[in-house]
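Please review this pair:
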Amino acid sequence: MSNQVKLYGWDAKARDPSVVLGGKKNIREPEPQTIASTKLPDTPLAKSVLEYAKKELSTETFNHSMRVYYYGTAIHTQQFPDWRFTSETYLLACLLHDIGTTDKNISATKMSFEFYGGFLALELLSKDLHAPIEQAESVAEAVIRHQDIGETGKITTIGLLLQLATIFDNMGGHEELVHKDTIENVTRHFPRNNWSSCFAATIRKENGLKPWAHTTALGEEDFPNGVLNNKVMEPYDK
């Protein structure tokens, strides 16, 4: 199991980002990191899931997923270089973390979108694409828990990095972890196209369809309003 832990990001980390950051805003000052300098995995599995995501996700959600990959990779390499996992595994989690929000999938179940998305990811990876079960389960766990924000307990390495990167793109959280030039470069390649309004509308749609949804745990009004008031990303949102 130890090899799978290292390969697929199963190491346990504190769920509270302030713990892994040692109570500081960052471990080191971020530096610019471009898409050109960041390797995108090109394994057959990565290519298959990339094509699947392009087909299933809206352009806005696909772009968000790719931004999450590049922001998360910058956070990983600059702030937490000792965190061990394959870049392929993290890419799969990024591409599939919002698969439950598509028009087809959000109305196909009464389950919260992250949970249903995790099951879809597990089936796609393990059954359809024959990924190692330890990798498929790591991705599914991260998808299910990517909005499981809190200050107690533990989470996987992949899960915590996915949380940090999605919070950064969606709400501008932990802005001290990513250099401004990185944002400018990433959004040039994967534009936001009014992502704040798009995602806030998805939150409200989920909560309207499913008043019990896990998303409500982040605040039925506080969460969508926080997304709409993302001052860090506002200059790049058009």
